[in-house]
Write a structure and sequence with these properties.
single chain, alpha/beta, D-tyrosyl-trna(Tyr) Deacylase, Chain: A, 6-stranded mixed sheet
Amino acid sequence: MRAVIQRVRRVSVSVAGKEISRIEAGFLVLVAVKVGDGEEQAHKLAEKISKLRIIVDEEEKMNLSLLDKKESVMLVSQFTLYGDTSRGNRPSFIDSARPGQARPLFEILAADLRALGLSVALGAFGEHMAIELINDGPTTIILDV
Protein backbone atom coordinates (compact mmCIF):
# COMPACT_ATOMS: atom_id res chain seq x y z
CA MET A 1 0.00 0.00 0.00
CA ARG A 2 1.08 3.54 -0.63
CA ALA A 3 -0.01 6.70 1.16
CA VAL A 4 0.65 10.37 0.54
CA ILE A 5 0.13 12.18 3.83
CA GLN A 6 -0.36 15.92 4.01
CA ARG A 7 -0.58 17.77 7.29
CA VAL A 8 -3.61 20.05 6.97
CA ARG A 9 -5.37 22.79 8.84
CA ARG A 10 -8.62 21.70 7.22
CA VAL A 11 -9.84 19.57 4.32
CA SER A 12 -13.21 18.89 2.73
CA VAL A 13 -14.33 16.42 0.09
CA SER A 14 -17.19 17.05 -2.34
CA VAL A 15 -18.87 14.84 -4.91
CA ALA A 16 -21.01 16.39 -7.65
CA GLY A 17 -20.76 19.79 -5.95
CA LYS A 18 -21.99 18.54 -2.56
CA GLU A 19 -19.69 18.35 0.46
CA ILE A 20 -19.67 14.81 1.85
CA SER A 21 -17.01 15.07 4.57
CA ARG A 22 -14.75 17.53 6.36
CA ILE A 23 -12.10 17.64 9.07
CA GLU A 24 -10.20 20.41 10.78
CA ALA A 25 -6.56 19.94 11.85
CA GLY A 26 -5.00 16.58 11.04
CA PHE A 27 -3.88 14.58 8.04
CA LEU A 28 -5.21 14.19 4.53
CA VAL A 29 -4.18 10.66 3.56
CA LEU A 30 -4.38 9.65 -0.09
CA VAL A 31 -4.24 5.84 -0.21
CA ALA A 32 -3.58 3.33 -2.99
CA VAL A 33 -3.70 -0.44 -2.77
CA LYS A 34 -1.27 -2.45 -4.89
CA VAL A 35 -1.96 -5.80 -6.49
CA GLY A 36 -0.93 -8.42 -3.93
CA ASP A 37 -1.47 -6.25 -0.84
CA GLY A 38 -3.36 -7.79 2.06
CA GLU A 39 -4.58 -7.13 5.57
CA GLU A 40 -1.02 -7.06 6.93
CA GLN A 41 -0.22 -3.98 4.84
CA ALA A 42 -3.44 -2.23 5.92
CA HIS A 43 -2.70 -2.84 9.61
CA LYS A 44 0.91 -1.72 9.22
CA LEU A 45 -0.11 1.46 7.39
CA ALA A 46 -2.65 2.37 10.08
CA GLU A 47 0.00 1.96 12.77
CA LYS A 48 2.51 4.06 10.81
CA ILE A 49 0.01 6.86 10.07
CA SER A 50 -1.17 7.08 13.67
CA LYS A 51 2.37 7.34 15.06
CA LEU A 52 3.94 9.51 12.34
CA ARG A 53 5.59 12.40 14.19
CA ILE A 54 5.07 15.33 11.82
CA ILE A 55 2.97 17.63 14.03
CA VAL A 56 4.89 20.49 15.61
CA ASP A 57 5.25 20.76 19.37
CA GLU A 58 5.52 23.90 21.52
CA GLU A 59 9.16 24.27 20.42
CA GLU A 60 8.18 24.21 16.72
CA LYS A 61 9.77 20.78 16.20
CA MET A 62 8.00 17.94 14.38
CA ASN A 63 7.70 15.73 17.43
CA LEU A 64 4.00 14.89 17.83
CA SER A 65 1.69 12.34 16.24
CA LEU A 66 -2.03 12.22 15.58
CA LEU A 67 -2.35 10.09 18.71
CA ASP A 68 -0.58 12.75 20.78
CA LYS A 69 -2.77 15.59 19.53
CA LYS A 70 -6.02 13.63 18.92
CA GLU A 71 -6.29 15.23 15.50
CA SER A 72 -8.39 13.82 12.64
CA VAL A 73 -7.73 11.87 9.46
CA MET A 74 -9.36 12.30 6.05
CA LEU A 75 -8.84 9.07 4.08
CA VAL A 76 -9.24 9.25 0.32
CA SER A 77 -8.75 6.29 -1.99
CA GLN A 78 -6.54 7.21 -4.95
CA PHE A 79 -5.52 4.35 -7.25
CA THR A 80 -3.49 6.75 -9.42
CA LEU A 81 -0.67 6.72 -6.83
CA TYR A 82 0.56 3.55 -8.56
CA GLY A 83 0.58 5.17 -12.01
CA ASP A 84 3.68 4.08 -13.93
CA THR A 85 5.02 6.39 -16.64
CA SER A 86 8.33 4.60 -17.22
CA ARG A 87 7.30 3.51 -20.74
CA GLY A 88 5.75 6.73 -21.97
CA ASN A 89 3.60 9.66 -21.04
CA ARG A 90 0.30 7.89 -20.45
CA PRO A 91 0.31 6.23 -17.02
CA SER A 92 -0.26 2.52 -16.68
CA PHE A 93 -2.25 1.47 -13.62
CA ILE A 94 -1.50 -2.25 -13.87
CA ASP A 95 -0.02 -2.25 -10.33
CA SER A 96 -3.16 -0.71 -8.82
CA ALA A 97 -5.53 -3.19 -7.19
CA ARG A 98 -9.01 -3.51 -8.63
CA PRO A 99 -11.86 -2.10 -6.50
CA GLY A 100 -12.88 -5.55 -5.25
CA GLN A 101 -9.47 -6.00 -3.62
CA ALA A 102 -8.82 -2.36 -2.73
CA ARG A 103 -12.09 -1.42 -1.00
CA PRO A 104 -11.90 -4.03 1.81
CA LEU A 105 -8.30 -3.04 2.59
CA PHE A 106 -9.23 0.65 2.56
CA GLU A 107 -12.05 -0.14 5.01
CA ILE A 108 -9.69 -2.12 7.27
CA LEU A 109 -7.31 0.85 7.30
CA ALA A 110 -10.15 3.18 8.35
CA ALA A 111 -11.37 0.74 11.02
CA ASP A 112 -7.85 0.33 12.44
CA LEU A 113 -7.38 4.10 12.71
CA ARG A 114 -10.73 4.43 14.47
CA ALA A 115 -9.83 1.56 16.83
CA LEU A 116 -6.74 3.57 17.81
CA GLY A 117 -9.07 6.37 18.92
CA LEU A 118 -8.74 8.66 15.92
CA SER A 119 -11.59 10.49 14.24
CA VAL A 120 -11.68 9.35 10.60
CA ALA A 121 -13.61 10.94 7.73
CA LEU A 122 -13.76 9.34 4.29
CA GLY A 123 -13.79 10.38 0.69
CA ALA A 124 -16.15 8.55 -1.67
CA PHE A 125 -14.46 5.35 -2.83
CA GLY A 126 -14.35 5.13 -6.63
CA GLU A 127 -16.00 8.51 -7.19
CA HIS A 128 -14.74 11.67 -8.86
CA MET A 129 -14.05 14.01 -5.92
CA ALA A 130 -13.13 17.64 -5.40
CA ILE A 131 -10.77 18.02 -2.45
CA GLU A 132 -10.20 21.40 -0.87
CA LEU A 133 -7.48 21.78 1.70
CA ILE A 134 -5.29 24.18 3.54
CA ASN A 135 -1.91 22.50 3.77
CA ASP A 136 -0.02 23.08 7.01
CA GLY A 137 3.70 23.60 6.57
CA PRO A 138 3.50 22.42 3.89
CA THR A 139 4.39 19.00 5.17
CA THR A 140 3.95 16.00 2.88
CA ILE A 141 5.23 12.46 3.46
CA ILE A 142 5.05 9.39 1.20
CA LEU A 143 4.76 5.98 2.87
CA ASP A 144 5.09 2.58 1.22
CA VAL A 145 4.31 -0.53 3.26
